[in-house]
Amino acid sequence: MTMYREKRFEEIKRLLTERKELSIEDIMQAVGVSRDTARRDVVALAASGAGRRTRGGIVSLTFGHTVPSYSERLKLFSTEKTAMAKQALSLIKPGGVYFIDDSTTLLKLSQSIDVPVTIYTHSLDNAIALAVKSDVTLRVLGGKLNHHGRFFFQPENLAQLSRIAFDAAFIGATAMSRNGVYFPYADDADVKATLAEAARQVIVVSETQKFQIQAPYRGFPLAAVDVLITERALTKKERAWFAPTTQLMVATPEASD
């Protein structure tokens, strides 16, 4: 039993090095243990200094100190993100006009849309996913490609977006604090600020771990968020940062089954 536990810990540490964050469900699937055993493993690994325990699992000790690239974030695709994308999909209605942001979770949303809608995006990966869907009218914003973030931008996009009353803008946060939703690039933050003004609904799809990350450019204040889709209920302190009218949708892995 001791040897099996040691091998299990080595596999969990290997995955943590690769992915930077693991949920309890990720650990259960990776090493074939029960939820209680996975939780005990997280406690033991955190105590040994192998990572930092979170409410939903464990993260590497360097998690949150830098903003990973889009390709790095794709490796972190978890069961929680799948469940969050499914919650977002429930808000897509036939005939609607939507903006979908350059988030890895929202890439899963783009891949899942199966109703006739009009989608605007500046994301290269969303555009590729949506291009094969005959029911989707796809509008891709142009400009120079940011290879790290994998989105297009040109200043003219801001005027174009400001003229569209989107039914909803689905936005993925890079970082969140009591002061607002933040992004690593000034031009991308300008896009999000424009969308927050133009859209009838601002829907932020983000894990609560983004409260632990810092990014330099604010897109909009938390008061502008109409719906927050995340993987757990907010603490009382976190909830107080948002407007009382902000709807919280908690996505659990069970919700994606």
UniProtKB/TrEMBL annotation:
Residues 5-60 form the HTH deoR-type domain. SMART domains: DeoRC (SM01134), HTH_DEOR (SM00420). Pfam families: DeoRC (PF00455), HTH_DeoR (PF08220). It comes from the Bacteria. The keyword Disulfide bond does not apply. One of its GO terms (molecular function) is DNA-binding transcription factor activity. Keywords: DNA-binding, Transcription, Transcription regulation. InterPro entries: Carb_Metab_HTH_regulators, DeoR-like_C, DeoR_HTH, NagB/RpiA_transferase-like, Tscrpt_reg_HTH_DeoR_CS, WH_DNA-bd_sf. PROSITE patterns: HTH_DEOR_1, HTH_DEOR_2. This is Lactose transport regulator.
